[in-house]
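agent> step 3/5: call structure_predict on target 'DNA-directed RNA polymerase subunit beta' (Glycine soja).
agent> reason: downstream docking stage needs a structural representation; sequence fetched in step 2, passing through unchanged.
tool.input:
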Amino acid sequence: MSSPGASSQTQSSSTTTPTHRHPNLSAPSMLERTLSSRRVNSCADGDADGDADESKTKKNQHILFRITTRASNYLSRIAGSGSFYLPCVIILLFIFLAFSFLFTSRGFVCISSSYSPVSGAGFFGFDGLDSDFGSLGVPCCRSKHGKTVEWTSKDLLKGLEEFVPIYETRPIKNNMYGMGFDHSFGLWFIACWLKPDLMIESGAFKGHSTWVLRQAMPDTPIISLSPRHPEKYLKKGPAYVDGNCTYYAGKDFVDFGSIDWPNVMKKHGISDLNRVLIFFDDHQNELKRIEQALKAGFRHLVFEDNYDTGTGDHYSLRQICDQSYIRGGGHNCFKDSDEARIRSRRKKFWEKAVDIEELCGPDEAWWGVRGFMRDNFNHSNKPISYAQHFQNSRYIESILDVYWELPPVAGPSLTHQTRYDPARAPSPIVEDGRYGLFRRLGLANLDNSVFNGYTQMVYLQISEQ
Ligand SMILES: C[S@@+](CC[C@H](N)C(=O)[O-])C[C@H]1O[C@@H](n2cnc3c(N)ncnc32)[C@H](O)[C@@H]1O
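tool.output (status=ok):
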């Protein structure tokens, strides 16, 4: 077992664990350059889907333009040479264009790409569920100035192409209770793109996420905090222990909130905290973790389990930002409502979907989990008032530069995942129906079970304080 300050030797169940470079991801080398000052009105799914969504919108507008043009031609023909019809034609065209705009503009709301009527639901043959996507929607946290990440859906696709063969070499093939494919890809992609000088993970389990970080950055030091040292798992089966990682684990375990970070940063020769990436997979209240990270001066955070309202064992960003002023956010507990009906229908299809009875606790408290702020694998939980919940969201918005939820890698008709409700997730990178692409990327060769663990992993950039 290694102790803080000392590096252990690399060992894993497989004798050699290849590390891979990522020649194709033409990422900027400085963390600052990962962000664009482009302002978007949509949720940060945002930019993952930016190109696709934009082009989808453009395509729709294009089609509508063609229809209006044809309609106008047709009407002009009817009108013939008579000037009597001309004002009617112009009025009709005006109404048509106004409708076109209404249905194609994304508006000043936090609209996720899952709002798109071109959704996976159709593949399951659910009647009328297209509109349900709009009704449930996908809430997200608003950042201070509406900035989003620089990477696009094209970058994510390119990343997937590169990551699938890497993932196939993972030492822990069955990582039950740890990360599956979606989040492994997300973490790898973010680390590749940001190219930090130091990576810190809180919550290592058998070491799969440590291995993912190592694949992204072969020579970058890692600090890993976990009550049980991953090497302990080696006795029973596959695990991963990294040679360039300082473990605060086992008897040397210290919680993230209790570490003397200035001292540890000094030991690692880190003077710019903007070049450090923190990965949390420790099932602690995310509000608490953000406050601790902020106090230490860290700015780039990834949370693995960004549970939706009514689910999960800790208070998450998704829960915090589920507010009435956000599209898809805020709920009511009326049993005889559209939301209640939609929820109960979706529950039949998706294991993790939550119906109105589950969503609502005593006194119609729906926020957090039935009005509770859970922490530490739900070993602790406290009731919070709606006012407090609202304040938490305002606080988060006041310190957030970027909020970006990783989209699922592929739609449910491709992955056959049945756990999370796609209506509560951004549009997938590989959309339903694109089996050719799914196969070409090598995703069809992976076991279906690796796609079941998606919980809206999120990347945050905290603004400079
Ligand atoms: C879901 S597992 C992590 C999975 C891992 N990241 C992976 O990819 O396979 C959660 C881990 O958090 C650890 N944990 C529990 N409390 C913790 C704390 N306060 N700080 C850091 N890790 C903690 C648990 O022991 C467990 O190993």
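agent> step 4/5: record observation. Residues 175, 177-179, 202-206, 208-209, 225-228, 255-256, 281-284 surround S-adenosylmethionine (CB under 6 Å).
agent> proceeding.
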